[in-house]
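Provenance and format

Records in this collection were gathered into a single text stream. Each protein contributes a sequence line and a token line. The two records reproduced below are adjacent in the stream.
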Amino acid sequence: MSELASRASELDAADGLAGLRERFVLDDVVYLDGNSLGALPANVPGRVEDVVRRQWGELRIRSWDESGWWTAPERIGDRIAPLVGSAAGQIVVGDSTSVNVFKALVAAVRMAGEGRDEILVDATTFPTDGYIAESAARMTGSTLRPVNPAEVGSALSCRTAAVLLNHVDYRTGRLYDLPSLTAAVHAAGALAVWDLCHSAGALPVGLDEHGVDLAVGCTYKYLNGGPGSPAYLYVRRDLQDRFDSPLPGWNSHAEPFGMRPGYEPASGAVRGRVGTPDILSMLALEAALEVWDGVPVEAVRAKSLALTDFFLECVDAYTPAGRVESVTPAVHADRGSQVALRCDDAGDVMKRLIERGVVGDFRHPDVLRFGFTPLYVGFADVERAARVLGETVAG
């Protein structure tokens, strides 16, 4: 056994979160793509079967009340809340991340007030956020300015209404300074909208602590909710009575069954709802979130940093000099829970890695991306992945 493999074994033996792996359906593949799609929690299939066979099959329409379908968006939002540093009553689950970005951004501009007609958007953002921001700008008569997160402070002005930022860059894994950037946005009199897709479930976020105005995120990455599982929307409590959704639906009406022609928004986080929720995906997500019972996010963050540190060390030891280059920050405060490596033939390399049982993903044009989900990834997985990578790029 190599020195690194021996160390991996020791680290796994000392890992207080190692037992959580049993809560997932896994095989002998090293799965490092949980930042795209989390692994299946073992309790989900049985729960979904109950939802389909009993709740839908037997109770049918009664399940909206008797099985708690109607209250699921807020109930599940309250389960997500502690994972992102939110008190209960501020998160509603439903729709996609894209739809929630649109709701949050338009509402932010509407709350910003007169004279504020500019939206700043992360220039390095996941493309959809940029598309949505452009549409929101057209809808609100605003000017859209793409800026690098590092330049937000100097780009803010008395015209800025809202700033849409990613907590973690999806390509490089860079973690941005949410507290400082939020404070800068507030100092300029604007509202901060954060996309948490690549941070929720991997590290502490602190939405309430840092006064974030609005936030959105998906649930199928580090929260393991399943493919296409519904996203969520956070609206800070003191903003909820001013939250003016651009998508007012019957589910967010103060009297949803009143069927009145005029719209009157409900109070609280319910304002973020639109139409009938996707119950099958919603309740699969609720079951998936049970893997977090008794798991502190701080411990997950500590293991995440230890895993990525060890992976970078193993990559350095196993790969030929100059063959790959990390574009993920080495400094812990700037790193999310993934490692991105630049490699000339990255697409072909990733195909060969997958064939050998190491699953990451490829981002155009030359990035190998590896996501580390501390709930089920261990140090032996890390060592094996780096060793196979070294053998692959050397061959």
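Adjacent record:
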Amino acid sequence: MERTPVTPATLPPTAVVVGGGIGGLTAAVALRRQGMRVTVLERAPSLEPVGAAISLAPNSLRALDVIGLGDEIRALAAWQGDGGLRTPSGRWLARASAAATAERFGGPLVLLHRATLIDALTARLPEGTVRTSAEATLVDPGDDDHPARVRTAEGELAADLVVGADGIHSAVRRALFPDHPGPVYSGFTTWRVVIPVPGVTFASHETWGRGRIWGTHPLKDGRVYAYAAALAPAGRPADDERAELLRRYGDWHEPIPAVLAAARPEDVLRHDVHHLAEPLPAYHRGRTALVGDAAHAMPPTLGQGGNQAIEDAIVLAHHHADLAAYSAARLPRTTRIARQAVRVARINMTANRAVMAVRDTAVAVLSKAGPALFLKSFDGIADWHPPTESHTRPEPGADDAVCSEQPTAGQD
């Protein structure tokens, strides 16, 4: 195949982002602020997120500050209150203070619906930047002398940078690192619901049982966000997931029975949890880089999957002209956090009663000793700051949103 020369220096550089999730859209906004012309290719027919809510820690909120979105998201946060850990009987193991979190890490921990964040990011992109129902295949990752190339149903796109933001089963990752074993099953599955539960008030909490956890959080709009996780074989969905939740959690403390009573079977989303147990050798090859789950999928036990995708996007934009520097900045940090998430999953999902007893006692002791000790596990995570040096150039006009296109023939 004849290769197209790199975009002339007289034209703004181009970027193609494969995947329109949180990481991909954040990268698109950040790259535009660096003066790049950006196209986002999303295989789904719309950008409506598959999922429910997302918890944003101070690290990702500071990353969003770089693209002028941090304060807007803080203001839109559905929940900024206190919470804690409980046992299935309802006993509090630990209390977490929102004020203590903000004081320790320089900002709040906020909860909002994923759709709110997706909408806010999309609003910062010109019309036509995002193409839905757009399957994309990386044809060539590019090199110092030639652009990367992506094939779509409408032809091929040549770009100075391709961003693989296509999730845990990333086709871009497979093209870059075909010998990598890919994701493995984490040993547990998750359920999520966002529903109204009239007349129920409660403090935000996560409850740890034997091989099972449950979380319930009030949202600002009056709805409730609840999630559950349990040890289970992969790929065995129940005929009625609400009934499955009732079987597993129906005798746990309030408001869990009330949430289950208000839920319909169609309200419940179930997903097996996979992660990348073996780190990638790098997060780039040639002119192509990976962000988010495509690079470092991790269990949700630290609530950092989306947060790290946002960090990736901001750091990638900062190093867009030097992808080796991007890999060097991101791979050690995300590998450490992913391994910590695996360790936490082994502890809070344990089915061993002796380990449970030690775990619960340790959590209670740490909590009584002071909130700072309980929050210490997030040191080095929530206190992260983005690169400070700015090379931001004026954004290209809306008419320049798409990349140079060669009209050749042819989740998670």
